[in-house]
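From the pipeline queue, job 12 of 40. The input is one protein chain; the requested action is below.

Action: predict structure.
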Amino acid sequence: MMSLPQARRFDWSNLGLRIASGFVLVPTALYATLGQHQHWIPALQGRQEALPYLLMISVAVALMAIEWGGMSAPGAPVRVSAAVTAAVLAAVFVGYGSHSVAHYVLAWCVMAVGAMASALIARGVAERPADAAYGVIYIGPAALCLVWLRATNQGVWWTLMLFACTWGADIGAFAVGSIFKGPKLWPRFSPNKTWSGFFGGLAAAMGAGTLMASLPYFQLSLLAAAFIGLTVGLATMAGDLWESALKRRFGVKDSGDIIPGHGGLLDRVDGLMFAVVVMAGARLANEIGWGH
């Protein structure tokens, strides 16, 4: 039986690398989300898509698929990664640039077909079909929800609130957990996470959501924003723990090493992948009248 990696304490020696990576990743995400607009506030009010945003999502999908192939299909990582990438990007391109329900229904159908095709390809190269199909199901919904979220009315605001709540949850959990420590949250899969960090992350996510809703032009009540921050914070924690469980299953410490101090891209955006689905659900509820 494959031995699982031993739990290790947080490596404080690479904290500088983690911070430096954040100074690169955060501005990149914000620039791609805002797009190349000359007037910032009107851009936040419109539905106009930005090509840098699509490029960012496409590159991220390809990198995550490569990491997924390396973890789940060590015998044929390139073929499985290519299949997962093609399946997810096909769905993203179908949904991109439209707020039409029909486009997104078609996009979800394309994703389902892509998952089945990935399973067939994995089976043909003696890899586990279910793992290849799950790679599409794991990466695809987050990518498609990111496209849809920004395409909605005031979509840039909602996308920025997603980032604020997710980053707030991560930073709050790390800071509070490091200071107060205490009982472990789920030591079997993630030995560094504590209950104090869990509640600190939720509080930070709620605060970030409320702060975003208090800004001018954003049409969202503070109470609704706090509730959305709470649910997004919960989703962020769940995504982080789920990724830890997946890495344990595949017997790896990190999904990759592309980001200095963080590991792979899947390691960095694991919480975001769950959080964006929850945020998209909140945005859909808001569109039918909740939270104004």
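Job complete. The CA atoms of residues 44 and 156 lie 5 Å apart.
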